[in-house]
Amino acid sequence: MKTQNQLSNNLFEVHFIIHEKDDNAVLLNGAYMINNKKYFTDIPVDFLKFSHMCEKSIGLIKSKSIWNRLFNNNDLVAEVSPKKHMNSPMFFNSKDLGIYNKYNLKIA
Questions:
Q1: Position 105 in a domain
Q2: CB 3.0–4.6 Å: which of 12, 21, 58, 105 could bond 62 by disulfide?
Q3: For the segment 9-28, what is each residue's pLDDT rounded down to a tens digit?
Q4: Can you give the residue range of the structural domain that contains 33?
Q5: pLDDT at 5 over 60
Q6: Is 43 part of a structural domain of the chain?
Q7: 67, 55 contact by CB (below 8 A)
Q8: What are phi and psi of 69, to 5 degrees?
Q9: Which residues of 25-58 are buried (b: 16+ CB within 10 A; e: fewer)?
Q10: Phi, psi values for residue 84, rounded to 5°
């Protein structure tokens, strides 16, 4: 996939945005690059921070579309795939998510 190859060391690629009914945060499922290795993880983000990051990254109209999809759902767990929902990948700056790449990783 082209988008996976373009993932750089300072971006988090969102694969799914997940929201459980009555929760006060969303869960971002995605991938992050450290030393040219891809790590998959889930990151919880509160609504206000997520809303701010979305509007900064993809704009107000697409952000509202994601919120509508998450909240206008009768399921206990709602999920949105940015690639399917918006026909484009979603990337966030790692520092906005509290991810820093100053780790000394050791291979066992």
A1: no
A2: 58
A3: 678 899 999 999 889 999 99
A4: 2-90
A5: no
A6: yes
A7: no
A8: -65, -35
A9: bbbbbbebbeeeeeeeeebebeeeebbebbeebb
A10: -80, -40
* Selection from 33, 41, 27 nearest residue 4 by Cα: 33
| pLDDT tens column, 36-71 | 788 899 999 999 999 999 998 888 988 899 999 888
Number of domains in the chain: 1
Three-class HEC string of the chain: CHHHHCCCCCEEEEEEEEEECCCCEEEEEEEEEECCEEEEEEEEEEHHHHHHHHHHHHCHHHHHHHHHHHHCCCCCEEEECHHHHHCCCEEEEHHHHCCCCCCCCCCC
Kindly tell me the sign of the dihedral angle through the C-alpha atoms of 80, 85, 91, 95.
negative
Q: How many residues does the chain have?
A: 108
